[in-house]
Structure formats: C-alpha cells, structure tokens
Design brief:
The protein is α/β, with parallel strands linked by helices. It has 6 helices and 4 strands, in the order βαβαββαααα. The chain starts with a strand and ends with a helix.
C-alpha cells in the first residue's frame, strides 16, 4: 500500500523542516508522494524538488493561497503549479507584503489589549519566511504572554478573536 500527504509545509511558511529535511522525513515516514504547499510562497519548491531527485518519492509542486470569503479566512490549495511563472510570483510577493502589514496590525491590537508584543519578535521567529498567526502565537509563548500556542489562538488570534 502506498501513502501520500498532499498538504505539507516547510520553514518557508509555518513548517518545521527545511525542504531537504521534509523530503527525508517523508521518506522515513514511508510516503510515496507528497505535495509541498507553503502559505503564499513557492520559495521552497526548487530545493524540495532537487532534494527528491533520485529518491523514491514523488513531489508535487504546490501553494496554499490565503483568501477571504464573507469575512472569513480560507485557504486554497493549488497543485502542479508552474512555480516559476512571473505573474504568480508577483502575486505571491503582494500577498507577502500584505501578511507583513497584517502582523503590525495584530501586534497593535494586542498592545491595546495590554499584551506588549513587538513585531520584530514575530519576524525573528518567522526568519523571513511567510509570516502568519502561528508565528505570532509562538512569539506570545516565547515572551510568556500566554502558556501555549492553543491559548494564543483561543483567546487572542484565532478566528472570531
């Protein structure tokens, strides 16, 4: 029996592994196929595909796009994309800029609630990857503002917070 995971992230968004590590972990897990679908970026795809060469692992290039529908954030997965397409890369760069602006807005709102979090601490955790709410939650935990990532989402940065 073969197994696949078609929703994996690298450190280029909110994943734990570099593309090379993700490939190795996927092989170790016995997967035969994966899709690398980082949030609003294709920066890790070239490395992931290169790392999978001559391995018994199929890697599908993809992306997870963030969108809004009726006031709710939704994620759209795209598979087998042309990740070198200039129009796609330009659109993703715009999304990246919007994500950074969103962090400043979130930090400002948290500050008004009495939670003193610096945007720099969030960006330090994201290390120039696609920055998002998980990085905010990690920064909040690191600074002792909450006890866990789950608490950060439940009380402050989750949907409807």
């Amino acid at each position: 029996m073969k197994f696949a995971d078609l929703h994996l992230h690298t450190v280029f968004s909110d994943g734990t592994y570099t593309p090379k590590q993700l490939i190795q972990e996927s092989i170790n897990a016995g997967l035969s196929s994966i899709a690398v679908v980082d949030h609003d970026t294709v920066d890790g795809l070239e490395s992931a595909l290169k790392s999978a060469q001559n391995q018994d692992l199929e890697v599908l290039p993809g992306v997870e796009l963030t969108a809004e529908y009726q006031g709710r954030e939704i994620h759209i997965l795209g598979y087998l994309i042309d990740f070198k397409n200039r129009a796609l890369i330009d659109a993703l760069n715009t999304l990246q800029k919007n994500r950074k602006l969103r962090i400043y807005k979130m930090v400002n709102k948290l500050s008004k609630m009495g939670l003193k979090l610096q945007a720099k601490s969030v960006f330090d955790i994201s290390q120039d990857s696609t920055v998002g709410r998980l990085h905010v939650a990690r920064a909040m935990v690191k600074q002792g503002l909450v006890g866990s990532i789950q608490e950060a989402f439940r009380k402050y940065i989750g949907d409807k917070c």
